[in-house]
Amino acid sequence: MLRIAMKNLMRNKSRSILALVGLVLGVTTIIALISITVGIDNYVTNTVSKIKGIIVYEKDVSFLPLSRIDEQTIEKIEKIDGVRDVAPRVFVTVMRIDDKGGGISGFKEMIRVYGIDPIRESKTRKGQHPLGSELLRGRWLALGDKYAVILDENIADDYKKTVGSKIKLNDYTFKVVGITKEMGGMIPGSATIPLDIAREMAGIKQNEVTALLVEPDHPEETERIADLIEMQIDGVDAKPTEEYAKQIATVLNYIDALFWIVSSIAVFVAGIGILNTMLMSVLERTKEFGVLKAVGWTEEDIIVLVLSESFLLGVIGAIIGTLSGAIVVEIAKHYLGIPMAISTNLVIYAWCFSIIVGVLGGIYPAWRASKLDPIEAIGVG
Question: Taking the model in full, what pTM does it have?
Fold first, then answer.
């Protein structure tokens, strides 16, 4: 029966292909976009969670680079019992490197620049790098450095920079003093510069910073210290890095849900396409179905034949969609530098979704074909 169904689909290749397009797009969307969002979610959660401490930023600011905190807040936080270290940060987004579009490997994307106080940052448990990366070559920033920069190896390799090279970030020229191991992530590459220059680049006041990393004496007291900071200091939010990671994950979950909705719509539209394809196929083959019934085919046989055709469309759409989704994931993995994997459960769901939609799209045409009167059908032909 499946062999006959496949031959029937090949009769009108253009119509079958059009019906497949919607299914392939739907399955690709499910496989690729959901895998990417899960990968990003896991990466962000794991990365932020590794930086044990508390992130302090301006109250009710959802986008960290827009936060502004008076630097005097550092002294207030240091007076809180149980605080070990406080490291100020200024985040800068760079869109231009050496007068070319920012990003790596030809990606016209932004890169993240961290402005730090090298002395305060080096006292933290993770070391001087804001994300705890390892120094590969050169040195860390030192007190008195002005236009000095530490690059991760992604940027260094892409722009052919070594220790001692010059690099232009937006309109500022820096000397490379160190290169760290790349961390990967949504923003392809990062750099670390002195705090004062970061303030200039970000256009914020000299007594302001973007955020503070607070480390407690005892990690198990992180939540207690965070609560004390919010109670004793006005105008700030203090979140343990694990909770901050959860907030980011929540945003990504909304994106994830949006992708599911888009995928579902795409597959639903594909179902309508299959319904149309199978219905037109039945109308064109009225005489054929009449002959089949005249030679002994039952209504159930006709239904099975038509449903087999729509079933095959669902299977083929699932196969092609899975392959194209895997290709998209591999491309995203290469450019984003984030570990991603297509889960077995996701593939099973996508296949079930595609096949069920395919079969549902063939139910009405199958029923209609089964009810044809053989004499009238042959006469119509």
Answer: 0.58
